[in-house]
Structures are given as structure tokens and as C-alpha cells.
Amino acid sequence: MKKIINRKTLSILILLISSTLSFAQTFEEHTLKFPMLHEYDGAYQINEMGDKGLLVLRNRYSGEKNNVISEIQMTYVKSSFQKKWTKTIKLSNYGDFRLNTYDDSYAYYLMQSGNYNYQVLRIRLEDGAHKVFYYKNVEKMTVDYFEANDEVCFLGGHAENRPIITRWDLASDNRKVLPSVHQIKGGLYCMEFDPSNDKLTAVVKAQMSSIHRGYYILDYSIEGHVETQYFEEIQRDYNYQTFRPYHNSRGDLVMLGTYGLGNITDETQGIYSMIISKNGYRIKPKFYDFSFFKNYYSHLDEKQKEKSQEKFTKRKRKDKSTPLRLEIMANRLQFMNNQVVFVVNDVTFVYPFNDQAKYHGDGFHTKAEVPTYTSFVQDEENMISRKGEYIPSTFIDEKMKDHLPFPIECNYNRSFACGFDFETGEMNWDNTYITRNLKTDMPIETVAAYADERKVAFLHVNRDSFFYNISDRLKYLDNLNVVSLKDYSPSKQVKKFRNGGVQHWYNNHFIFTGTKSVKELMKQGKKENYFFLTCLSYSNRSLSE
Question: Which residues are CB-contacts of 347 (< 8 A; sequence separation ≥ 6)?
Fold first, then answer.
């Protein structure tokens, strides 16, 4: 009997060691901890800056009083994941931290005090030197987007119920409203700056009349001049839902995103790809229905898979689409190994009310009280900021869903990773990852993927464990691996955990953030609170040989 127990123990040890070694070969893990006096000791924000590194902002005061002095602690972490410097900055009348961005030399933080007063905190990456610039009550705009490059800031949002983008030169303090946007009746749905081409891309959903609606897609130079303008009328058969722009080596605008069937729907059918040339001509867009994906049904057993594919094939012969009615959260684009990787998540949102709920009872919000995506995000940030709690940097705020209530729970069903040709925007491969009923209380990026010429590696993090899956790019493989975090110990108990999500940082590196309150079981009453920053680097090159 003793020998049998020993063999079992030995088998378990071998399994644990091999699992740990497999993860060590596949992902390298490095963690930085920032001690907190208590679980609300400072509000943390992360500014990911690609191969420039990242900045960790800690706001020691987050209150509602006027004329207060806030102690801001900045820690610059280089791309090698080593701390370069830590600076303490004292700001008065600073307002709330709203948005951040960066360029080659500086990090920029947009702060808001009052309804229309904004400031920009500029941090020099070399030594942490800082300066505050004030933007006072000029256009009376509400800012939803913030981009900066070479000390020129672009603020996008709405003013007097119309979309607006302003250009602000910090050095000269010159400010102007960009043309071709503020005259449109509609809303700003995307604004991104491409530093490799010095272009600002904006997407405005416009409504000229009850039947004449569509999207203006514009490229601006860094000087604020319109370089490309294209109008796409809303079609009867499909509608664009999200926008992820970039420019190829020729300077053409490539746009990826999700779309739905019909001209007004929140349900997603697939992913689209379009190219707009520098001359403003659109190359016919490609629509990739999820049902066409090679691995869309791969997770089903053979009988279910055969039945689903047969049903799909019949409708395809009749040139009909099978409505999928998916709720999709789209991640940011990832650029790696001469390709563009786009990860989208199939989710189920749990809202504060449903169709059967009585709005004035049952513990639900009344319909008038339910916050929208846009309003809740700001209210949520203010509420958390006052308590000093961590705000996840991967907080997704899709402006196109601003008419929906904010979900109180997000259930992740599966994720799709798609690889696109960088130049043409054509899809080369797809793969699927089952997230095993992953749940969060905020809509954050929880799944990321790394892909090279042959393999794709999915990764997500939930509490104290990493989950990952590696397979051929064109082949679904149900080989989920689970590995505990290195700081996990049976003698410790996590009392409170705030998941900040996992997202692509640069190259083969991913960032996982959050806060923890850990209790020592052997030392009664002792508790450790900290903000953590974990770098996960895909490193198993032998898998792609």
C-alpha cells in the first residue's frame, strides 16, 4: 500500500513539474509589486507605451475638495521591465485623470476640472521632468478621445450635440477646431493617431436626414489639414459597429472592425476589412462572416459540428446568411511578425434590468437611472477615484453602445483570433479559444493572443492562474493549460482581488495588472495590500520550428 501511495505521489509531482516547466518554456513571468498601506491607498493608472516602456501613475489623493494638493507618484518601467525612475509630483487644482497617451519623448495625461476645463500633464520619459498646460473653457466640449504627438494634442468629443476635434499646440498654445467634423450632425466614434504616418484618423457617424445616414472617415495631417475624406452610406444589409484603423506601408488607410446584419443592430455577425487609398477611393470591403471561419464550430463534438456545418452549407448555397446574434467585444489591434492580429470576444452581458423586470422594484435600477456606457464610465471612474481604488487600464468604452446600460457582469464564452495581411487587410487565418465560463464585473480585455508564422498562443488570466492554449494557426486544439502564479502560496489567502485584464504590450510581451489584498494564514491579522504589474513573455520558440 505504501508503494502505491508513493507512486501516486511521484506521478502528481511529475505532472506538476512538467506543467510548470511547460509554462516556463512557453511564457516567462516577471512581476513588480507596489505596496499599499490599505486596499484604497492610492488610485493606480497604467500608460502602456509599446517599446518605450510603461508608466505607473499612483494618485495619493483622490477627493472632491477644491484647491487641494495631490501627490502623484510616477514610476517609469523600461521595455526590459526594469524600473528606471520614480518621481513624486505635487499638483494643485489638478482635476480628475481622464485619458493618457505618449510619443517618443513624452507621456501625456488629460485631466478635467469642472465641466469644460482641461489640463495636460506632460512627463518627459528621460528624467521624469513635468509641466502642466491649461485648456480653459474654450470650445465648451466634452472630451472622449485624446491623442498627442510631438507636443501637439488632439481632443475629440462633442460640443453642443455635435462632434468636434480640436488641435492644441502645447508649445505655442495655439488651438483650432479641425474642419469637416463640427458641421456634421452626428457623433464621433473613433479617433486614433498613427505616429508612423503622422496621421489622425477620425470616424463620424452622420445623419443628414431620417433616411440619409452614414459614416465619414477622415485622415488629418499632424498640422490638422484634411488629407483623405470618404463617406460610406449605411447599407440595408449590414452595418459597421467598431473601427480599428491603421496605415499600411503605402500610406493607405486600412480599417478593421466588427459588423452586424441589417442597418441598425447591436448583434454582431463577423469582421470586416476595408482599404481607403490616399486619393479617397475605397477598395471593395471584405466581410468575414464568423460562420465562414474554419474553426467556428471546431469546439463542438463531431455530431454537433456536422449538423451545424450542414445547416450553414445549405443556407450558403441559397446565398443566405445565418444570423448569429453574437455580443462581441473587440480588442485593440496587435502588430507582430508582419501581420495584424485581431482578437474579438464572444460575451454575454448581464444588465441591471431585463425585459421582465419591474423597473421600480425587484432591486433593479429604474430605467431612467440606468447609466449608459459613456456616462457610467466617467461616473465609475469618479466613484472609484474618490475611494482610491484601481481603475483597469483595459476598460473598454465602446462609444457605439452608449444607448445601452452598463453591464453588471460579463460572461466570456469564447474568443476568436484572426490574422490579417498588413498591406492588403485580407484575412489569412482564424482560430478559436474557449474561455471556460470566465466572468468579470467589468468589460475589460481578458484574452490576448500571440501568433507567428505557424502557431497561435491564446492567453488569459483569472485570479491566481494563467490559462493558455497553443496550436497551429489553422487548427483548433482543445489543450488548455493552467498554471498558478508564482506568488501563490497555500499559506496565503486572497481576500480581495481586482482584475485589470491582460493585453498585448509589444512584440511577444503581454501585461497583466490588478490589486490584491492577501492575508497570511499562519500570522493572524497580518495582511498585505499591493498593486501588481506582471509581464508575460511568449518564449517557446521550439513550438514554431
Answer: 327, 328, 329, 410, 411, 412, 413, 443
The CA distance from 161 to 181, in Å, is 12
470 class by beta-carbon count within 10 Å (0-12 exposed, 13-18 middle, 19+ buried): buried
Q: What is the pTM of this model?
A: 0.86
CA 351, chain centre distance (Å): 20
Q: Cα(111)–Cα(118) distance, rounded to whole angstroms?
A: 6
User: 386 lies in a domain?
Assistant: yes
75-95 per-position pLDDT tens digit: 999 999 999 999 999 887 777
* Structural domain for 442, as ranges: 310-544
Residue with cell 467585444: 329
Kindly give the pairing relationship between strand 447-451 and strand 427-440.
unpaired
**Chain centre distance of CA 469:** 21
- CA–CA gap between residue 443 and residue 460 (Å, rounded): 14
Compute the distance between CA of residue 23 and CA of residue 543 in angstroms, rounded to an integer: 12
Distance, CA of 84 to CA of 128 (rounded, Å)? 10
Distance of CA 250 to CAs 197, 222, 305, Å?
A: 10, 18, 42
Q: Domain total for the chain? A: 1
pLDDT digit string, tens, across residues 151-179 = 999 999 888 878 999 999 999 999 999 99
DSSP state of 100: E
Q: Rounded to an integer, what distance in angstroms lies between the CA atom of residue 530 and that of residue 545? A: 40
- Is residue 206 a part of any domain in this protein? no
Q: With residue 187 as reference, give the H or E element that holds it.
A: strand 186-194
Residues in the chain: 545
Is there a domain that residue 35 lies in? no
Any domain includes 514: yes
